[in-house]
Amino acid sequence: LKTTKMLVFLVFQMISVFFINFLRVLATTGDIGFTANLIHRDSPLSPFYNSFETYTDRMKNTLLNYGIGEYYLNYSIGTPKVKQSGIIDTGSDIIWTQCRPCSVDRKECFKQDAVIFDPKGLEKGAHGSSTYKGVSYDSPYCKALGDQGKFRVRPYLCGYQLKYTEGTTSKGDLAEESFAIGDSISLQGIVFGCGHRNKGEGYEHYATGVIGLGDSQLSLIYQLPIKRKFSYCLVDRSRRETTSKINFGSVGLDTKSSAVVSTPLVKPKASPTSSHYHITLIKIDMGGRAQLNYNDSTIPPLGNMIVDVASTYSYIHHQLFDSLKAKMERAVGYKAEKDLWEKGRICFKARKRFLPSITFHFDGGMKLTLPPENSYFTVSQKKNIECLTILGNEDPKDEAVFGVSGQANFVVGYDLELKRIFFMEKDCTEY
C-alpha cells in the first residue's frame, strides 16, 4: 500500500511539473512566456569554436561572413529528439533545417557537425520520428508561402523553396513536428521546412538551418500560443563567452520607463506583405553636430529601414553614406584609411574614444546614440585601425538595415499587436 501511495505521489508530481510548464507555454494572456539562450558563433560556448583562431582571424571571419547571422538557438526536433542549432533571423518568415535524404557529397546539402534530421529513418541505424507529419498543399501554412515559395509534392503535400539575398537557398517538404527548447519547453505541431536541397557556404559546421522570427504566419513568433511579443538582449562581440537571451511572450522591459524609447513598426507601400520589421529612419547625426537627412526629400519614406538580427552591420542609402564619410573625415581631420579586407568601409587610424559618436533618429522622436563599441570595429589592434559598422548600399533600391552592431547591449522588444518596437540600453551580460 505504501509503495502504491508513493507511486501515485510521484506520478502526481510529474504531472504537476509538466502541467506548470505546459501552462507557461500555452498562456495566451499577460506577458507570460519563456526565455532561451542565444550563442554567438565565435563563442567558446559554441561547439564550432576554434581555439586556435586569433583575434584577427575572428574579426576577418566576421567581416567576410556578415550576411548569415551571428547568433544561434539550440533546440531539439522530432521523437526521439535530435539536437539542432538554428540561426535566428528576424528577416526570415520560416523555420527550416536540413533533412535526409540529403547528400553532402553530391552537394545537395552543406556540411554540418550535428546529425542531419532523418524523419523517415532512411539512413542505416536511424529510427525516424513518430511525430513527423507532412503539411497539405491546401493548408493555410502552404498558402502563406505564396505562389513563388510553394510547390506540390506528390498528389496532396506541400513543398517549399526559398532564397536569401546573400545566396543561401533551401528546398524541401513543409511539415509539422515536435520541437523542444531547453529542458522544459515542449512545442507540438510546429510547421517547418524539412530541407533536402540546401546551399549556404557560411552555414557549414556552424548551423543546421534558420529559426525565422519574421512578421509571418510561418515564423516561430506566430506559431507559439502566446501573445505576439518577443525580445532579446545581445552581448557585444567583446563578451562572446557570455550567452545572449531571447524572450518569447514578453517585450522584456517596462515600456513606461523613461529609459525606454520606441518607434512604430510599419509596412512600406512598396512591400506591404513583407515579413521584415520596418521602421522609419529620419536622419543621422555625428558627434551631436553634423546632421544628415535620410535623403533630399523633406519627408522620408515610411518603413525605409529594416531591423535585422541576422545582419552584422547596418546599411544606409549610398548617398547618405557618402555624406557621412565626408563629414567624418572633416571631423577627424584626415582621410579615411583603406580597409584591410573589404572595399567600401569607413576606417580610421585612431582609438574609439577619439572618433565621433553616431546617433540614429527615427519616426516618433526615437533617437539611439550608439556606444563606441556599437559604432566601430577594431579591425587591427597592431595598426590601431577602427572601422565604422555602417555601410552604404551598393544598389540604390536596397533597403536600409539596422543590424546587430547597432543593437548590441540594448534590450530590443517587439510588440506585434501594438505594432511598436522598443529599445532600452542595458549591459546584456546582466540581463
TrEMBL record:
It holds the Pfam family TAXi_N. Residues 71-424 form the Peptidase A1 domain. GO terms for biological process: proteolysis. GO terms for cellular component: extracellular region. The chain crosses the membrane at residues 7-27. Keywords: Aspartyl protease, Glycoprotein, Hydrolase, Membrane, Protease, Transmembrane, Transmembrane helix. One of its GO terms (molecular function) is aspartic-type endopeptidase activity. Belongs to the peptidase A1 family. PANTHER family: ASPARTIC PROTEINASE CDR1-LIKE (PTHR47967:SF128), OS07G0603500 PROTEIN-RELATED (PTHR47967). This is Peptidase A1 domain-containing protein. It comes from Dipteronia sinensis.
